């Protein structure tokens, strides 16, 4: 997993044997075990790393009015009970423009107003709640509603 994995050597003296993984990938999910030997003593601990991913299809850049699919997946082993999506902190109703199924959100005609922070929240049968955020960028025209612009001859027009 090198070079994505590091241990803080300076923290070892203080008894901190933390492992840092940056960036985390889906395949990093699983059980990790640390084993520390000091003199005749051996200590172990186990930590399970769960990973949640949000993916975009088709991949960026997203063009205004072209359908897109945001998918939310987790390595959690329990059964998925509910998936909710939030846009800029507000719960998204799944009707009309937005359709949600099994952790995926389909946006049929994305608009410039759909850009921003999207968070999926997954609730499982064991009451575990997991969430992740995706920053959606959309290419489109964010200009005046009237497409006619007048400029004086000899001047610049934007």
From TrEMBL:
Record-annotated Ig-like domain positions: 50-131
GO CC, alphabetical: external side of plasma membrane; extracellular region; membrane raft
Gene3D superfamilies hit by this protein: Immunoglobulins (2.60.40.10)
A biological process from GO: interleukin-15-mediated signaling pathway
Keywords: Adaptive immunity, Cell membrane, Disulfide bond, Glycoprotein, Immunity, Immunoglobulin domain, Membrane, Repeat, Secreted, Signal, Transmembrane, Transmembrane helix
Membrane topology: Single-pass type I membrane protein
Localization (cell): Cell membrane; Secreted
InterPro entries, per the entry: Ig-like_dom (IPR007110), Ig-like_dom_sf (IPR036179), Ig-like_fold (IPR013783)
GO MF term set: MHC class II protein binding; protein tyrosine kinase binding
Superkingdom of the organism of origin: Eukaryota
PROSITE patterns cross-referenced by the UniProt entry: IG_LIKE
Family: Belongs to the LAG3 family.
Complex formation: Interacts with MHC class II (MHC-II); selectively recognizes stable complexes of peptide and MHC-II. Interacts with FGL1 (via the Fibrinogen C-terminal domain).
The protein's role, per its UniProt record: May function as a ligand for MHC class II (MHC-II) on antigen-presenting cells (APC), promoting APC activation/maturation and driving Th1 immune response. Lymphocyte activation gene 3 protein: Inhibitory receptor on antigen activated T-cells. Delivers inhibitory signals upon binding to ligands, such as FGL1. FGL1 constitutes a major ligand of LAG3 and is responsible for LAG3 T-cell inhibitory function. Following TCR engagement, LAG3 associates with CD3-TCR in the immunological synapse and directly inhibits T-cell activation. May inhibit antigen-specific T-cell activation in synergy with PDCD1/PD-1, possibly by acting as a coreceptor for PDCD1/PD-1.
Protein's name in the database: Lymphocyte activation gene 3 protein
